[in-house]
Design brief:
The structure holds 2 protein chains of 2 kinds. Chain A is of the alpha+beta class. Chain A is built from 20 helices and 15 strands. In chain A, the strands form 5 sheets. A 5-stranded mixed sheet of chain A has the order 1-2-5-4-3. Chain A has a 3-stranded antiparallel sheet with strand order 8-9-10. Chain A has a 3-stranded antiparallel sheet with strand order 13-14-15. In chain A, helix 8 packs antiparallel against helix 15. In chain A, about 55% of the residues are buried. By secondary structure, chain B is of the alpha/beta class. Chain B has a single domain, classed as Rossmann fold (3-Layer(aba) Sandwich). Helix content of chain B is about 30%, strand content about 10%. A 4-stranded parallel sheet of chain B has the order 1-2-3-4. Chain B starts with 14 loop residues before the first helix and ends in an 18-residue tail after the last helix. The chains are: A alpha+beta, B alpha/beta. At the A-B interface, helix 6 and helix 9 of A face helix 2 and helix 3 of B.
């Protein structure tokens, strides 16, 4: 993919450390097209960098970034171009995933994408004025909004796209031949698992067309990051995918560590893998428990949720918090494992195994369960990739893509586990993939238990890790070291960098622009739930309303991560 | 007819006490869960902490059927009008628990998206600290509501003079 692009665009500059290919503005659309033809089938992210007040002068104020992953999933490539005006050409005709990603760029930075089918705000309220992620927008400038958005124009466009209505020259829509009923599911609805609004056009019980509105939990993660030091960002990352907080911690810390060129001690790596796999399990447990409740199977909820409580006890002992652990630090982690952790983990693993097997026993051969999930809301492998799905949702469609095996990091090369794939990509596959992934994670944990190496849990580097308390209170050097790290933060050299891990819901990546100070210039999260939700419309159209509810549970939307 | 013919079949009390006794042990919560706190509410409802021990397990998702609004999670400016509408749709009497740092004060989201405390738009009875609070704290808040309502009169207009930012 990279070679083909370099051959075609001779003037392009490739930065190996950042994995960024810089192109000219007029070439970028063609380059994305070529990248797609050369096997770059998965569009991970589109984002904008605002270089206003950047430490070193840049050619233009805004730069556009595309992040594309190759179909072998082993490599990704970032394409970058500077924008002379606040506009670019939409690539939504190539990647369906681009639709929402470009809307986000428009919403946050005010970049207009030409030929975009539906360019309007996505995370912020429609009455919002200004573009909050631009550097000249003050972080605390909130705007109280009063009117909810009318989704009917968007629905009309969707119906038009499906050929159900027509539009005359004056822009009036014809009446649909079918007797449609329009209903809102959400934003406050038990089945939306958080606050998401789906607006459906119903023909009887069948969803003919759907439009979704998100952004109700948009908490300004990326703006907050720009105003905090790297270690202060860790608690914010907890609250992205709050069902498995430590995984987000690791994803962020790993990115910054790679930017700093640090290598973690073996013990720290092993502990990270251990807690990440436990987090993966407890996230799947919540997803499956809630999903089965949507189906009316309340008993499963208790069997799946109760082991989670035992896991919380472990996390409380280890990190001091049940849910939002903030366990990782740049260069290691906050605490070492406590004495007797192995026994606790063995009990947790046994309880999880029991809970999963009892719960599976109730549904595995259950006719109602089969009828409600099999061949319901399926998505094919190629569609799923084009829509930007990843993680269990993509694997359920039969795509063997798991970063742990495609591009192994930490210990995953040496650990024995299977990548679980489905065949049809329906709700059944999505549920079963998650059930089996719990077993695989348990398998990984068993291999680690008893094999955690001794040694340090943090890198030995005074410019990154806080000195010991004895040192802080006992020597002036220690005090100054502590003070500088807390006040100024870990200083990351000027660079642009993307790194990712296989989080519970798929590829979780951070794209960070560092300017040499202790605070990032920009942080962009590649959030798996965002891609999954943008695919939702296509998945549910044509299915029954009750199935649409199940589908929302099965793609495991975590609002904190989706809306950020 | 002699009065004592009725024996122990009659207990005399004040009307407020009788009504409050019934209300206290059957609070029906509407959980406006938006974020991380909602996951901790799930724990509060699950077996180990078991909210039904306090008579509040009948979680309603229609505001018309609920008398305890439990705001669990961050309320953004985009969300605020919805929360206000739900509060308005709940019939009197109604109580509000603000669960977690975000609902109480905006938490550490002091930025352009987040409402700096739900008491800017609706009246709050009990604030629960924590990010997110432990289930025990939620149960504690529930018991505080129970204590509070015992001292109230059923005919009293509880928050009639409250004016929030969206009431203009």
């Amino acid at each position: 993919m990279l070679k083909a692009l370099q051959n075609r665009f001779k003037h392009s500059i490739y930065l190996e450390k950042s994995n960024i290919l810089s192109l000219k503005e007029e070439e970028i659309f063609e380059a994305v097209k070529l990248a797609f033809d050369e096997g770059g089938t998965l569009l991970l992210d589109i984002t904008i960098i605002d270089y206003l007040d950047f430490i070193s002068p840049q050619k233009e104020r805004f730069a556009l970034i595309y992040n594309i992953r190759h179909k072998t999933f082993k490599q990704n490539l970032l394409l970058k171009c500077f924008l002379s005006e606040a506009k670019a050409q939409s690539v939504s005709s190539i990647y369906k995933a681009a639709n929402w990603l470009e809307r986000e760029c428009y919403d946050q930075y005010g970049i207009v994408f030409e030929h975009h089918p539906n360019l309007k705000r996505i995370l912020n309220h429609w009455q919002f004025e200004g573009f909050p992620l631009r550097k000249d927008y003050a972080i605390t400038k909130g705007q109280l909004c009063t009117q909810s958005v009318n989704l009917m124009p968007e629905m009309n466009e969707r119906l038009l796209e499906k050929g159900l209505i027509t539009k005359d020259k004056e822009g009036n829509y014809s009446k649909c031949e079918k007797d449609l009923m329009f209903i809102n599911i959400g934003p406050s609805h038990p089945a939306t698992h958080g606050t998401i609004r789906n607006f459906c056009a119903m023909d009887g019980e069948t969803v003919i067309a759907n439009v979704s509105e998100i952004g109700y939990l948009h908490r300004g993660f990326e703006k907050s990051c720009e105003n905090h030091t790297y270690n202060q960002i860790i608690p914010y990352t907890d609250r992205l995918d709050y069902c498995s907080a430590t995984t987000n911690n690791v994803a962020f810390a790993k990115t910054v560590e790679e930017m700093l060129g640090l290598t973690l001690p073996p013990r720290a790596v092993a502990i990270r893998v251990l807690v990440m796999e436990l987090s993966r399990i407890i996230n799947h447990l919540v997803c499956l428990a809630a999903q089965l409740v949507d189906m009316g199977a309340l008993t499963n909820y208790w069997y799946l949720y109760n082991p989670r409580e035992t896991a919380y006890d472990f996390f409380s002992k280890l990190t001091g918090a049940r849910l939002t652990n903030s366990y990782m630090r740049i260069g290691g982690m906050s605490y070492d494992l406590y004495e007797g952790y192995e026994d606790d983990l063995k009990i947790i693993m046994k309880e999880i195994e029991e809970g999963v097997s009892i719960s599976l026993g109730m549904i595995e051969h259950n006719r109602i369960f089969h009828d409600r999930t099999q061949n319901v809301c399926p998505v094919s492998a190629s569609e799923a990739i084009n829509l930007g799905l990843s993680g269990p949702n993509l694997r359920a469609a039969g795509v063997q893509y798991d970063l742990r095996s495609a591009k192994p990091y930490y210990l995953y090369n040496d650990l024995d586990f299977d990548v679980i794939v489905g065949s049809v990509g329906d709700i059944y596959d999505r549920i079963m993939v998650r059930f089996e992934e719990i077993n695989q994670s348990l398998r990984i944990m068993k291999q680690l238990l008893g094999n955690i190496p001794d040694g340090d849990i943090c890198v030995n580097d005074a410019s990154v890790v806080l000195p010991s308390k004895e040192n802080v209170y006992g020597s002036i050097e220690g005090t100054m070291n502590h003070f500088k790290l807390i006040y100024e933060g870990v200083k990351v050299p000027e660079q642009e960098y993307y790194s990712c891990i296989e989080a519970t819901n798929g590829e979780l990546g951070f794209f960070i622009v560092a300017d040499g100070s202790g605070r990032p210039h920009k942080v962009k999260v590649r959030a798996p739930s965002f891609g999954a939700m943008s695919a939702y419309t296509q998945m549910v159209e044509g299915s029954m309303l009750a199935d649409a509810v199940l589908n929302l549970g099965s793609i495991n939307i975590i609002a904190g991560e989706m809306d950020r | 007819m002699e009065l004592d013919m009725l024996g122990d079949a009659v207990i005399t009390t004040r009307l407020d006490d009788a009504v409050n006794w019934a209300r206290e042990s059957s609070l029906w919560p509407f959980v406006f869960g938006t974020a991380c706190c909602a996951i901790e509410f799930m724990s509060t409802a699950a077996s180990r902490h078991d909210i039904s021990r306090f008579g509040a397990e009948v979680v309603r998702f229609s505001p018309r059927q609920a008398d305890l609004l439990l705001v669990a999670g961050t309320i953004s400016y985009k969300q605020a009008p919805i929360l206000k509408q739900i509060y308005d749709q709940m019939p009197e009497p109604k109580w509000v628990i603000s669960m977690g740092a975000c609902a109480c004060s905006g938490g550490f989201y002091d930025n352009y998206t987040t409402l700096q405390g739900i008491d800017e738009i609706i009246p709050v009875d009990v604030y629960v600290a924590g990010c997110p609070p432990r289930p025990e704290s939620v149960l504690d808040a529930l018991m505080m509501i129970q204590e509070k309502l015992k001292k109230e009169s059923f005919s009293q207009d509880r928050a009639g003079d409250f004016v929030g930012k969206l009431d203009a």
